[in-house]
């Protein structure tokens, strides 16, 4: 697979929003769920997702930091991010990453009890788009 720069990956991911987040439970069984990283985010190798700290995905990440993110677009762009997950509860970081519209899931904003961020730092990103493919390694 052809090597790709972080800039190339960021350009591909520029307008992507929803992905499937894959985590593993204590029995090493994979679990997938759709997640939004809020689209139009400048990708720098880290993906950010708001969640509740009592969710299964947060528990799974705290027990096994391996996370995969799978993106797909209508024009056949596929991206797989493999990385490590971390749970962030710092109010300044929550405030920095907050965007309008999240209050439909977190009605009290960053003061919503149990709110947290899931940070996924990519160690490897692969993409396939029609006849082109590439791979970035952090």
Query: Average pLDDT value?
Result: 93
* CATH homologous superfamily caption: Electron Transport, Fmn-binding Protein, Chain A
pLDDT < 50 runs, ≥5 residues: none
Tell me the count of domains: 1
Instruction: Please write the CATH class name.
Output: Mainly Beta
CATH architecture: Roll
Fold-level CATH name = Pnp Oxidase, Chain A
- Shape assignment: globular
> What series of H and E elements makes up the topology?
HEEEHEEHEE
**Rg result:** 15 Å
Helix content: 10-25%
Give the amount of beta strand, in percent: 35-45%
Counted by DSSP, the helix tally is 3
Q: Mind summarizing the main beta sheet?
A: 7 strands, antiparallel
Distance between the termini: 15 Å
Number of strands: 7
Pfam families: Pyrid_ox_like
Domain General stress protein FMN-binding split barrel: 6-131
Organism: Chryseobacterium formosense
Protein name: General stress protein FMN-binding split barrel domain-containing protein
């Amino acid at each position: 697979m052809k090597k790709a720069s972080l800039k190339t990956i960021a350009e591909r991911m520029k307008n992507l929003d929803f992905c499937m987040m894959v985590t593993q439970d204590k029995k090493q069984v994979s679990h997938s769920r759709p997640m939004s990283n809020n689209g139009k985010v400048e990708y720098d190798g880290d993906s950010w997702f708001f969640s509740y700290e009592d969710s299964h995905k947060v528990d799974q990440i705290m027990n096994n930091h391996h996370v995969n993110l799978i993106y797909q677009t209508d024009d056949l762009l596929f991206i797989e991010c493999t990385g490590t997950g971390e749970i962030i509860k710092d109010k300044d970081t929550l405030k920095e990453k907050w965007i309008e519209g999240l209050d439909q899931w977190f009605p009290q904003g960053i003061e919503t009890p149990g709110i947290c961020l899931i940070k996924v730092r990519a160690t490897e990103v692969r993409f396939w788009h029609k006849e082109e493919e590439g791979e970035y390694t952090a």
